[in-house]
Specification:
419 residues; alpha/beta; FAD/NAD(P)-binding domain; D-Amino Acid Oxidase, Chain A, domain 2; eight-stranded mixed sheet; seven-stranded mixed sheet; 18 strands; binds flavin-adenine dinucleotide
């Protein structure tokens, strides 16, 4: 059993190595780089049986938030193995509205998908991410903030630890396994020789305001399709309660011209919330790719955005970060127990992740994304007009095909690859 440590922010008298919660050791079983949802989860799971160091370059875990904070309920509750804590839920979601360029909308309610539970949640990631890091600490992980990975220690091509910088001081810590959970701008994978490059057509460039003083429909995620707000992605309004909302959009890298995502966002906000006040602006990339060819090499695994795990159609990355963090943490434990962190053992993480329900549907979601990004406004109008007014009874594959056949058979031909 490990002793409980604390998430430490201050500089102790022992210098950058001292963290106030105990000095950093020269060696750990597992080092996790990045304390987002993927990294903290991997650290917690690995710490159940191994000694773990979790490092985060920011001084405050979870802040600034680069996320619209929406999560679907069933996988979220399942991965957390508990009901969400009201402390880190801003809003429950009980409706999803998809808006076509011509103003027609289709609404999805819990009833439509035959459930009485909420469809999802909008989180408070500042609180949620910090909670996950605390849980890693309570499981025994040593958590160090303001500590940046600057490179990997490699011997004969095998990763043996991480080079770090804390408050201006460089040092090295050795480990048997390194988990790269360093987000979309990940360097760990590249340092380990893994190809993490994304094509421009496989990354959404996003801009989002946190808006106040806005009239939004409570408990509803609103999505807007069409070229006025995004030439290839979608715009969103996610309520945060108390007349606040995350309002943003993504534009595929390959579709960016001299009009930037922030320019589209300003048009969207002027149309929807002329009296709203943006109180925060975030910009960031979201991988929308088919995934990496390899997620592991000798001594290294990648999770979450670092592994390009984001779901390619929606751009949602919290669920795959949690999911991959759990699996990677478990396989890291196994590698430490077996005293073998070679690719042969670590690749089990890849196989498991690719064959779980999320990994399996990834190829379909990528196909769907490729389909959506090439649709015209007129085609979006047709799809949403056909689906407008769909009943819960029709919300099956058979029901949808019947509806398409009746209302717009040519559309059925167009989307046949997705069915
Ligand atoms: P991150 O949360 O990015 O965490 C990586 C961590 O690593 C960071 O804390 C970073 O500081 C740290 N780090 C990086 N480099 C180093 C280093 N060298 N040393 C130490 N630490 C380092 N997903 C959803 O599911 N729902 C949404 O509604 C949603 N909306 C989004 C809106 C926007 C505008 C954007 C940009 C993204 C959105 N996403 C959304 C995606 C989601 O935010 C990510 O997929 C998710 O945060 C991935 O988690 P992660 O743990 O892999 O990485």
């Amino acid at each position: 059993m490990h002793d409980v440590r604390h998430v430490c922010i201050g500089l102790s008298r022992r210098g950058p190595h001292g963290t106030g919660g105990g000095s950093v050791r020269d060696e750990y079983d597992v080092i996790v780089v990045g304390a987002g949802p993927g990294g903290s989860t991997a650290a917690r799971v690995a710490a159940e049986e191994c000694n773990v160091l979790l490092i985060e370059k920011r001084q405050e875990i979870g802040s600034p938030v680069r996320c619209a904070e929406g999560v679907p309920r069933p996988p979220f509750s399942m991965l957390l193995e508990r009901a969400p804590d009201p402390k880190w839920v801003a809003c429950e979601i009980n409706a999803i509205r998809i808006n076509a360029p011509d103003g027609t909308a289709v609404d999805v309610s819990p009833e439509m998908i035959h459930t009485e539970e909420p469809l999802g949640y909008v989180l408070e990631r500042k609180i949620f991410d910090r909670q996950l890091a605390k849980e890693a600490a309570r499981a025994g992980a040593h958590v160090m903030v303001r500590t940046r990975a600057t490179g990997l220690i490699t011997e004969d091509g095998v990763v043996k630890g991480v080079r770090m910088n804390r408050l201006g001081e460089d040092f090295e810590v050795r480990s048997k396994v390194v988990i790269g959970a360093d987000g979309v701008e990940s360097q760990v994978g590249r340092w380990a020789g893994l190809n993490t490059t994304l094509k421009l057509r496989d990354i959404e460039s996003c801009a989002q305001y946190h808006m106040d003083n806005v009239d939004v429909r409570d408990e509803t995620l609103d999505f807007y399709l069409g070229s006025r707000y995004s030439p290839s992605g979608y715009a969103w309004i996610f309520p945060k309660g108390d007349r606040a909302a995350n309002v943003g959009l993504g534009v595929l890298g390959s579709k960016i011209t001299d009009k930037r995502p922030i320019d589209y966002l300003n048009v969207f906000v002027a149309d929807k919330f002329p009296d709203g006040q943006p109180v925060e602006l975030v910009m960031g990339g979201v991988p929308v790719s088919e995934g990496l060819r390899a997620l592991t090499s000798d001594g290294v695994m990648l999770v979450g955005d670092a592994a390009r795990h984001t779901e390619p159609l929606s751009g949602g990355g919290i669920i795959p970060a949690l999911d991959s963090g759990i699996t990677a943490g478990r396989i890291a434990r196994k590698a430490v127990q077996q005293k073998d962190a070679s690719t042969k053992v670590l690749r089990e993480y890849e196989t498991e992740f690719n064959n779980n329900p999320y990994g399996k549907q990834r190829k379909r979601m990528y196909k769907a994304k490729e389909f959506v990004v090439h649709r015209s406004d007129e085609e979006f109008n047709r799809v949403i007009n056909v689906m407008h007014g769909v009943t819960p009874e029709e919300m099956t594959m058979k029901g949808i095909i019947a509806r398409l056949l009746k209302k717009d058979p040519k559309l059925l031909f167009m989307i046949r690859h997705l069915l």
